[in-house]
Amino acid sequence: MATLLSILIILLIFGLFVSVFFIIAISDAKVREKNGQHIMESLPDNVAIKSVVRYNIGRPQGRFLKMKSFQGSGVLYVLGENVYFKDILGNEDHVFDLQTCKMSWVENKINGITNAFKIADHEAIIFFYIDRGGFVFKAIEENISTSDLYLRLKELRKKVRAAKKAELGGE
């Protein structure tokens, strides 16, 4: 009888631990969703591309073992000749110049993490990807796939560079 009671107590403690973990995960997802939606709604109307993204900065993306597959969430958008990244927490905001930044696709099979792309300039290297399952209750409609976002950014950068080259050639 004592053994059965011990097993039940252990199962109850384990169930309580798992329940607390899921409550924290769900509330974190809701906060990310609310903050991401708030940033998206506050963007100017003339934004060319906008998407809610997950990110890693620099070395964490290349590590073999990590505690989680992303460092944070934010909004990536293009306004004029710049790519803006706004971290949901406001800690890692950065602006990339479309003409001078470097963009590349990153095949990432480590820890089951999705493929990503990186944008780099002289100040920062940030890895981005879109996690369609990132929001528990609904997805933000503006999101596209990671590869589509990358291709659209590359195309926009190509147009900006061509326009600048034509402008310089016309002078």
Structure in words:
The chain is α+β, with helices and mostly antiparallel strands and 171 residues long. Helix content is 39%, strand content 25%. It contains two helices and seven strands, in the order αβββββββα. The chain has a seven-stranded antiparallel β-sheet with strand order 4-3-2-1-7-6-5, with helices on both faces. The longest helix has 41 residues, at 2-42. It is elongated. The N and C termini lie far apart (92 Å). Mean pLDDT is 79; it is low at 134-141.
Write the layout of secondary structure elements.
Elements: H1 2-42, E1 49-57, E2 72-79, E3 82-87, E4 94-97, E5 102-106, E6 116-120, E7 125-129, H2 146-170
Antiparallel strand pairs: 1-2, 1-7, 2-3, 3-4, 5-6, 6-7
Rg value: 21 Å
Strands in their spatial order, largest beta sheet: 4-3-2-1-7-6-5
SS class? alpha+beta
Helix content: 25-40%
Head-to-tail CA distance between termini: 92 Å
Question: How much strand?
Answer: 15-25%
Mean pLDDT: 79
Can you write the helix and strand succession as a string? HEEEEEEEH
Low-confidence stretches: 134-141
| Shape category | elongated
Supply the number of helical segments.
2
Q: Kindly state the number of beta strands.
A: 7
- How is the biggest beta sheet arranged? 7 strands, antiparallel
